[in-house]
Design a protein that fits this description.
Two copies of one chain form a homodimer. Chain A is an all-alpha fold. Helix content of chain A is 72%, strand content 0%. Chain A binds a DNA duplex through loops.
DNA sequence: ATTGTAAACTAATATTATTAGTTCGTCAAG
DNA sequence: CTTGACGAACTAATAATATTAGTTTACAAT
């Protein structure tokens, strides 16, 4: 029996992310992760601090990947176009990785500096994009909150199957983002 | 030992709703419900179909209470004022009953006619309020989705502690809703 | 009085997470 | 080479949970 099977924290977290995306974050269990890796449950504790620790790792991974996607979407764009791009990228990320994204939402440990820094990096991207609208410090924060709320709300409802009627969801989303952008221009 | 302790489905669901609101829906366990009611776990099965059934009951209760709150908020109001009112009522409901509200989100059983009817009733209130803007059939649905996404997103992020900075959240919300309403007037 | 029903129970099973302690390669120091 | 420390994965045990099966008993209707 191979004593070392090449388990690493990266592999454990990666498999967990896959499972969370396909079966839902609330269905994530160490038992499934271990089974998928061909390993007994306690072995996971050598790489990850239990289920809570694993979920924290997922949150960190999710925030970082989201930041990455938003940054890429904003490259070479500015103003309205950049807002549309990051909104679309955010929505696409939630739909592609619903479990990983869900992990990023739950209120983090206030003492977790690493996770807080990662979250701030995400906000930073949006702040940068919205800075071009010259809304002032407070105005920019209000706008960041609004944009995030709107995209988060749309994407999570969509991922949860919350839009029953057979009407084009892309169109609904585009209209919502357009309306928000219009508001950015008319605000004091 | 009293053989009948006066347990009813209503009491079970009511206690569960309380626990879900205070400790989070994901922390809801039959063990806690039973303990709170001074009863053994299996006794709950006489009134509720296991944990899954209990969560379904919570979803139904949540949707109905939400519809009730939205309806009340819209009474005697129309146009912009009505939109502001139901948006505020929706947000207040999520903040006051985060667990109950969370239960209403998870994708329901497609065969659950009762739950679907209740959901449709909620949508109906919003449709009625937005009908005054004369957006057409499709336009109204897009607007309903947008409003719901925006309020859902803001309130759930807020409830999850997602807005770190010490800037007035009421103001952020008011601006977002105003921008949305402005969009309703300018859209084709 | 009797009998049926329903509510609550005990007991048993399965799944999960967690901790403690064990085994056994591997690798580096002597 | 040998040896000894370390780490990765293990077994075993414990606790919490949900669920099901089968049992008891109060109460109400006949």
């Amino acid at each position: 029996m191979a004593r070392s099977v090449g388990l690493t924290r990266e592999r454990v977290v990666s498999v967990a992310a896959e499972l969370a995306d396909t079966h839902g974050l609330d269905q994530l269990a160490l038992a499934r992760v271990a089974a998928r890796l061909g390993v007994r449950i306690p072995s996971l504790y050598n790489h990850v601090d239990g289920l809570a620790g694993l979920r924290r790792e997922l949150a960190l991974l999710g925030v970082r990947r989201l930041t990455d996607q938003l940054s890429r979407a904003a490259i070479g764009r500015a103003g309205d176009e950049a807002v549309v791009a990051i909104a679309g990228a955010y929505r696409a990320f939630v739909l592609a990785h619903p479990g990983l994204y869900a992990a990023t939402i739950h209120a983090p440990d206030p003492d977790d500096a690493e996770l807080h820094a990662a979250s701030r990096a995400t906000i930073e991207v949006v702040v940068t994009v919205l800075a071009h609208f010259r809304l002032g410090d407070a105005g920019t924060i209000h706008a960041v909150r609004g944009l995030r709320a709107l995209v988060h709300g749309f994407a999570t409802l969509e991922a949860a199957g919350g839009f029953g009627l057979p009407l084009d969801r892309d169109e609904s989303f585009a209209r919502l983002v357009r309306a928000f952008i219009a508001g950015l221009h008319t605000n004091p």
